[in-house]
Amino acid sequence: MTDSAKSDRETQEGGNSHRCGVVALLGAPNAGKSTLLNGLVGAKISIVTHKVQTTRARIRGIAMEGDSQIVLVDTPGIFAAERRLERAMVAAAWAGARDADSIVLIYDASRKRIDKDTRMIIDGLKETNRRAVLVLNKIDAIKRERLLELVALFNAEGIFDETFMISALKGDGVKDLMSYLAASVPSGEWLFPDDQLSDLPMRLLAAEVTREKLFLHLHQELPYALTVETESWEDFQDGSARLEQTIYVQRDQHKSICLGKKGQMIRRIREEAQAELQEMTGRKIHLFLFVKVRERWVDDPERYREWGLEFNA
In the chain, N or C terminus with fewer CB closer than 10 Å? Predict the structure, then answer.
């Protein structure tokens, strides 16, 4: 029997050992979903800041463990949304959970009790008869006695199949979680090549890198009032690339803050974003940033389509 015929027969007889499934990462804002996603994938594909509600769109990371491919969906934090963009973000998170094979609920263990946002997620899972894996994150910030109390508190909800205690930032416990997810995803062919890390277009990922730097350096509400778009991407024969990005803000005073005194702020953001993009891509990047005022960009349906969000959520 030829190798090809043997492979075909094994596939027909269930001999193919490939596993593949979609796992949604749910949690309140700032629970550590993006940090965990990056840790599981082994590369930075979702931006991370100390501010809540950083993630706007559903970002899919692709993790490989043995013969298992785990498509991880980093969802925006779930909270009591009021504004249009917030409602769209929360709707995207619930859609990610609805479409997933399994759900991981991530909780910031440094909190003293189940907060209202996490309670809302638990209640939503119960209403839809969905079970989940509980991940208590940031365990290095809580005493063991309190941690065990939290485990008992969550398990009393009756919807969690397993509980993992981790530090996504330090990597503690992440390997055990990965092994569990790899074994629990269903049998099936991989959805992506085994060397692909994300389904996010590079232009959008590059814009997210710059937006992260803006979040880190700008204060109060300004980061939430801006967006970044990669307007052009030009590849050169020497392997380098030229990127032009526009930062859209809602007011003239926001533009002044982004630029900084004598352009110092925008220069710093450009340098940091360019350095990270060069590290990510392994190539020379020439990044050019422009700041423009677009008062109602947050009400532009095109922005929502680009992020995979429902405008009328």
Answer: N
